[in-house]
């Protein structure tokens, strides 16, 4: 694991349209800060998974499936 600090700028809520996606991103911001220093933490995997969920939440919102 690198000694460089792990950054989570990609978790910005400003471009998210759905309430669910914004809430999930806010949760991820807090969670990312809490777990990013743990051994075996993979920030790239975390980012990939969180972005996948955010995309699905935004898609569901645009289809009217949730708010």
Structure report:
- This protein is mostly helical and 67 residues long.
- The protein has one domain.
- 55% of the residues lie in helices and 0% in strands.
- It contains two helices and no strands.
- It has helices at residues 19-35, 43-62.
- α1 packs antiparallel against α2 (43-62).
- The longest helix has 20 residues, at 43-62.
- The model has no long low-confidence stretch (mean pLDDT 85).
Brief overview, please?
Helices cover 55% and strands 0% of the residues.
β-strand number:
0
The CA-CA distance between the termini, in Å, is 38 Å
Mean pLDDT: 85
The structure class reads mainly alpha
Low-confidence stretches: none
Q: Quick one: biggest sheet?
A: none
Q: In DSSP terms, counting alpha (H) and pi (I) runs of 4 or more, how many helices?
A: 2
* H-E string: HH
What share of residues is helical?
55-70%
User: In the residues, how many domains can be counted?
Assistant: 1
- Oligomeric state of the chains in view: single chain
- State the shape: elongated
Question: Whole-number radius of gyration?
Answer: 13 Å
Beta-strand fraction estimate = under 5%
Q: What's the arrangement of secondary structure elements?
A:
Elements: H1 19-35, H2 43-62
Helix pairs in contact: 1-2
């Amino acid at each position: 694991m690198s000694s460089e600090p792990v950054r989570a700028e990609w978790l910005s809520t400003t471009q998210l349209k759905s309430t669910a996606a914004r809430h999930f991103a806010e949760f991820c911001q807090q969670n990312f800060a809490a777990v990013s220093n743990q051994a075996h933490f993979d920030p790239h995997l975390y980012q990939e998974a969180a972005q996948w969920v955010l995309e699905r939440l935004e898609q569901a919102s645009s289809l009217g499936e949730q708010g």
